[in-house]
Amino acid sequence: MRLSSFWHNRKVTLIALSGTVVIWLILRLLADADAKLLAQYHLSLPTIEIYYTALIVILTFLMILEPRLRPRLQQSRMRAIIVAAAGVISFLAVGLPLQPQQTRLFQFPFSLWLIIVHVVGLVALVVWGITANRAELPNRRLQQAALVLLIGAALLVLTAHMTSLGEFMRYDAPDEPWLASMATHYADDGDLSPSYIASAFGTPDPILPRYYWAMGLWLRLIGHDTLAQLRTFPLMVGGLAVVIFGLTIWRIPALTTLQKWAGLLLFLTFSPLVRTSHNLRMDIGLAVYGVLILVGLLMFFELGYRQKRWPILMGAALLIGLETVPTAALPLGGAVGLILCIWFLRQPERSRNWPYIAVYAAAGAVSVMLYLALHFLPDVQTSLNGFRQFSDLYFTQSRSLGLRSPFSDLINIHVRFSLSLSPIELIAILLAAVIVWRAGRAGNRWVLAPVILSIIAMLGFLAFSYSYWVMFTPFIAYIVA
Q1: pLDDT given for residue 244 in this prediction
Q2: pLDDT surpasses 90 at 71
Q3: Which residues make Cβ contacts (< 8 Å) with residue 180, sequence separation at least 6?
Q4: By CB distance 3.0 to 4.6 Å, which of 111, 247, 357, 480 could disulfide with 432?
C-alpha cells in the first residue's frame, strides 16, 4: 500500500529519473562510436556526463518534493507559464544542431538525437504531470492563449517560408539546375526540354513531368534571373496544398479550432514540405495530389458524404500525381482503389455502392490516358522509343524497381533523414498514428489504410526519395491534429 502511494505521488519524477539514468547509460555505451561526430557539434562525453549527473541530482530532489510541488504547479497561471516554457525549451532543443544540412544528413550522431528526444520527452512529461486530471478541461483563457500562440507561430513559419526562398541547399545542387532548366528553356524558347544538355530522349521530353510546363508559364510572367524567382513556383504549389488542407479540416466538426490551427501549423513545419517547397524538383506537386486524396477520403469515409464527386475527385487528381512523380502517385492511387473495393465488399447493399468504384476507376483511367497523350503525342513511336531508353537506363542504374527489402532504405535513408532534419517528427507521427488507429473512429481507419498500404508498396518495390513523403504530409498533419 505504501509502495503504491509512493508511486502515485511521485510517478512523474520517477519516470523522468529512471528514463534519464537509462539514457545516460546508453550515451556511455555510444561514447567511443560517436566521439568524433559529437566533436563536430562542439560536444564531448565529459561535458555530457556533467550535465546528466546534475540532472539526476536535480530529479532526485524533485522526486522527494513532488507531492508538495504538484498542487502549486497545477494552478492555472503556473500551468500556463510551464506550457509556454515547454514550447520554448522544445524549440531550442530541436534547434540545437546548428551544423549545415549536408553535415546533419551524413554526420549526425545517434547520441545527439537521444539527447534531443530526451529533453523534449522530459518537457512533455512535465506538461502531462500538471494536466494529468483529464476530467478538468483547460479553462477558456488558457485555450485562447494557446490559440493565439498557434496562430502567431503559423504566421512566423509562413514568413520564414517566404524569406528563405533564396537559401540554396547545397545537397540538392545536382538536381535543381538540370530540372529547372526545363522551365527556363520553355519560358524563353517554348521548348520543353532541359536547356543546356537538351533531351537525350526526344523533344519535348517524353519523360520529365509537365509540372515544368506550368512552371515555365509562371516564369514568363515574373522572370527567372534569381534563385528566389525560380523557387516562387514550388512555394506557390506548396501554398496551394496548404490552402486546400486548411479549407478541408475547417469542415471537420470533430476538430476544435485549436486542433485545426495545430494541424495547419504542423503541415507547414513537416520537413518534407519544407524541403520540397524550397526546391526546384517537382516533388512538391505530390503534396497537392496527397491533399486532394485526403479531401476525397475525409468527405467519403469520415463525414459520410456518399456522393460520386469524391471518388471522381480522387481519380482525377491522379493526373497531378502522374505529372509530378508517377512512381509515387500510382501506389497511392492503387491503394485508394483497393480500399474502396474492400469497403464495397463489407457493405450489405452492394448494388447501391458499386458506382463509387466505377467512377473512381473511370476518372483514374482518364487521368492515365491524358498523361499518355501529353507525353507521347503526336509522334508516338519516337516518344515511346525515348521512354524505353530512359526506363532501361534509369532502372538499371538506380535499381529502383523490383522486390526489395523494405528495411534497408527505410532505416538508411528515410529514418536517418527524418531524425537528423527533425528529431521529434517521426516519434510524434508514429504515436499519433497508433492512437488514431486504436482509439479513433472507423472513418479514421479508412482514411489511414490507403496511406499504410501505399507506403508498404513503395518501400517493398521502389527506391524512392525522402522528399516523396510530402505526398503523405496532409494525412500526417490531420492525424496528429
Answers
A1: 96
A2: no
A3: 212, 215, 230, 280
A4: 480
Are 290 and 318 in contact by the 8 Å Cβ rule? The answer is no
Identify whether the C-beta of residue 471 lies closer than 8 Å to the C-beta of residue 328.
Answer: yes
Report which residue type is found at 142.
Answer: L
- Distance CA(461)–CA(354), nearest Å, equals 30
C-alpha cell at 30: 555510444
pLDDT at 290: 95
Residues 481, 263 contacting (CB under 8 angstroms): yes
Q: Distance (Å, rounded) from C-alpha 218 to C-alpha 241?
A: 17
Block residue for cell numbers 492515365: 368
Query: What ranges in 277-415 are assigned the alpha helix state H?
Result: 285-297, 309-322, 326-345, 354-376, 380-398, 406-409
Radius of gyration of the chain (CA): 25
What percentage of the chain carries pLDDT values higher than 70? 86
Q: How many CA within 13 A on the CB side of residue 463? A: 12
Q: Are 317 and 292 in contact (CB under 8 A)?
A: yes
pTM of the model: 0.84
Q: Which of 46, 47, 67, 55 is nearest to 118 (CA)?
A: 55
pLDDT digits (tens, 9 = 90+) for 82-128: 777 877 787 777 776 666 666 777 777 888 888 888 888 888 888 88
Amino acid at 66: E
